Each structure stands twice: as C-alpha cells, then as structure tokens.
C-alpha cells in the first residue's frame, strides 16, 4: 500500500469524526449556548449543506493548482473550521466554524479519490479508493464514540480541539507523502463541467443520493427506534453505532475488492441486499439481538456501494474526473438530508419509528433500478460505437504500466 493512501485515510478519519461527533455532543452544545435542541440541529444541517455546496465550488477553484496543494489547502480549511468551533463564544460563530470545516469535506474526498486511484495500477483503483474511505469508516468505530465520551466527560470544546489537531496531522501527512503530480488532466473549468454531459455521471450521482440516502433514512432516527421499539437504553445506542461503524468498515473493504473484479455485479448485489435489509429492519427492530445484527448489516451493505459508485464516476468522466468525483461526494450528503427529511415526514404522519425503514428500502430499491439502467446504457453504447467495446478502465489496464499511472 502506498504511504500516501495512509495520509489520505488520516485526513478522512478527521473529517468523518467531525461530521458525526456533533450528534453525540449536541445536548451539551445546546446547553452551553442556551439554545434548543432543534436549533442546535442546524450544526448538522449546516455541515451537510456546506458539503453539497463546497464540493463542486472548491474543486472548480482548485483546477488551477496541483491536487496535492489543493488537498493541503483543504486540510488547512478543516483545521481552521474546527478550531473556530472549539473556541466559539456564541452559537452563530460555531455554526460558521462548522460550515467552514464542511467546505473541505466533499472536495477532499473527491480530489482524494482521484489521487488514490492514480497511485495504483488500473485494476486496483477501487481498492485504493476504499482504503482512503477506510479512514471515514474507522472514524465511526473509534473517533465518534471517543469524541462523544471526551465531550461528555471534559467538554465538547476539547473534542473539537482534538479534531482540529487530527487535521494538522493529516496536513503534514499529505505534505510529506502525497506526490506532487501536477495539475489535473484539465485546468479548463469548461472541460470539468463537460463531464456532466455524460448521462452516466448523472445516473451515478442519483444512485449515490438514493442508495446512501436509504441508509440514513434509518440511521438518522436510530435512537428513538432502538429505545422506543427495540427496548435499548440511551447509553446502549453508542455501542449500536459502533456496530454500525464496524459494518461500514467491512462493507467498504469488500466493496473495493469486488468492484475491481466485477463493478456492476457488486453494485447490483449491494443495493438489492440493502433494500431487503431495510425492509427486514422494520420487523427485526422489535428484537434487541436481531436489531443489532440488522443494523450492522445495513452499515456494511450501505458502504459496500461507495467504492463501486466512486469508481464508476471516475471511469465515466475519465477526461475530467475531479469535479464529477467531488460532486458525487456531495451527493452522499444530499442523500443524508433527503432521507432525514422523508423519514421525519413519515414519523410525523404517525406511522411509527420504524417507518423510515420503508422509506430507506424504497430509496435503495430505486437506486437498484437506476443501476440496471446504467448498465444497459453502457452495454448499448459499447455495442453501437465502433471501437468502444472496451471500457475506459479496460483500456487503461491494457496500456503500458507508465501510461496507466
């Protein structure tokens, strides 16, 4: 494994921690600033919207510099945002800090995916992307529970100060280990936007929104579901989220490994199984043991879709992949926001705390249908266009090793 992937994974660990740890310390933040829990919830919403907006914006602005320099800038932005949150004197300043930190999120994973794929031979691209995202999954196993514990024990400000220090480590790792490979393939902004003329890029983005949204339809309301339906205590929810994180970790590795061998079959399997698991969760949520097993499975299946979807975008936008890759990362957070909204609607309609699982199953099932459409269009294109029977990834695999890199 190239050491540069470790540097990217460290940055991903810090970003993953700051994204989700706020949920664990939200009551303490609300008490300190004297605001309600719903008002404090804007720290979550503001972060998600910042990712959606920041991913394409900063990626476009970064077309004039090397990817390494852009990654270093993004980690600097991440450190500033979390330091501002840690020292915020009023709620509004902390909200600004959260948004500043979130701006780095989408662009870091988008550009980092391209860098990770370029570090290895073509047939290992999905595995390399999954290794970078491994930092995000480990954050849900270690970073978020640890950050929540620290925040509850000695104060939430310490949590964000520690996260800012993780950003410094990530910055130093990128500066030392990531090779300076020059500017992106194109420094023309029009060329980057031209990637969106490909319907496959839009299909992949839609699959990301719906597939990963299916996961968050359930996970957003996991606390009331587990306490009111399964019968767990509130303290046990933290360990349930650790199980969810373990599932994400395993699913990410499996998705990366098998996407290199058979990308679309892996996507079909993970999306179909995810929709089925979410349907089953409606029933298994009434049993403690089955609920814990199903939650772990949902985490695994949900994140098994990430490497194949990200690689599919890179393959389809091979001439100008940076913006398309970053936009796809933003799509994950758009899916989070959409699923949380829809899940809240069905709960408010009186359908019960397990009803978001039905929403999630519907979203993931729709993503599965879109994946069938994407595969059909790709097969038809390769059949009709002369010389296109070989995919972009296969052409890269057949090229000399130096050109492949």
TrEMBL record:
Gene3D superfamilies: MFS general substrate transporter like domains
Domain of life: Bacteria
Keywords: Cell membrane, Membrane, Transmembrane, Transmembrane helix
Main location: membrane
TM regions (residue ranges): 42-61, 73-96, 102-121, 128-150, 156-178, 199-224, 236-255, 262-283, 289-309, 330-352, 358-377
Major facilitator superfamily (MFS) profile domain boundaries: 4-382
Topological category with respect to the lipid bilayer: Multi-pass membrane protein
InterPro entries, per the entry: MFS, MFS_dom, MFS_Efflux_Transporters, MFS_trans_sf
Subcellular location: Cell membrane
PANTHER family: CHLORAMPHENICOL EFFLUX PUMP RV0191 (PTHR43124:SF3), PURINE EFFLUX PUMP PBUE (PTHR43124)
Protein name according to UniProt: MFS transporter
């Amino acid at each position: 494994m190239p050491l540069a992937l470790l540097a990217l994974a460290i940055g991903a660990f810090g970003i993953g921690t700051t994204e989700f740890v706020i949920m664990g310390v939200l009551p303490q933040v609300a008490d300190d600033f004297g605001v309600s829990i719903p008002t404090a919830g804007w720290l979550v919403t503001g972060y998600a919207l910042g990712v959606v907006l920041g991913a394409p914006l900063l990626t476009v602005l970064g077309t004039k510099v090397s990817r390494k320099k852009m990654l270093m800038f993004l980690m600097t932005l991440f450190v500033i945002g979390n330091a501002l949150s840690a020292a915020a004197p009023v709620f509004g300043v902390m909200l600004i800090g959260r948004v500043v930190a979130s701006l780095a999120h989408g662009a870091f994973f988008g550009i980092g995916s391209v860098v990770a794929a370029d570090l290895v031979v073509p047939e290992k691209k999905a595995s390399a992307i999954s290794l970078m995202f491994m930092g995000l999954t480990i954050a849900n196993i270690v970073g978020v529970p640890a950050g929540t514990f620290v925040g509850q024990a000695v104060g939430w400000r310490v949590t964000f100060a520690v996260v800012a220090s993780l950003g410094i480590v990530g910055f130093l790792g990128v500066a030392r280990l990531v090779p300076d490979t020059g500017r992106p393939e194109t420094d023309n902004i029009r060329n980057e936007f031209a990637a969106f003329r490909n319907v496959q890029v839009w299909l992949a983005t839609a699959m990301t929104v719906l597939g990963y949204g299916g996961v968050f339809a359930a996970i957003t309301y996991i606390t009331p579901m587990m306490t009111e339906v399964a019968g767990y205590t509130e303290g046990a929810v933290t360990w349930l989220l650790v199980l969810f994180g373990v599932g994400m970790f395993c699913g990410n590795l499996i998705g990366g490994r098998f996407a290199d061998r058979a990308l679309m079959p892996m996507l079909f399997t993970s999306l179909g199984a995810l929709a089925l698991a979410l349907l089953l969760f409606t029933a298994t949520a009434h049993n403690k043991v089955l609920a814990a097993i199903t939650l772990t499975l949902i985490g695994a299946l949900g994140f098994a879709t990430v490497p194949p979807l990200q690689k599919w975008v890179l393959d389809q936008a091979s001439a100008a992949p940076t913006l398309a890759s970053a936009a796809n990362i933003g799509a994950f957070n758009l899916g989070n926001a959409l699923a949380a909204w829809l899940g809240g609607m069905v709960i408010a309609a009186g359908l019960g705390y397990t009803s978001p699982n039905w929403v999630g199953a519907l979203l993931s099932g729709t993503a599965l249908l879109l994946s069938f459409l994407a595969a059909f269009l790709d097969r038809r294109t390769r059949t009709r266009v002369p010389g296109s029977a070989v995919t972009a990834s296969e052409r890269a695999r057949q090229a000399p090793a130096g050109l492949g890199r």
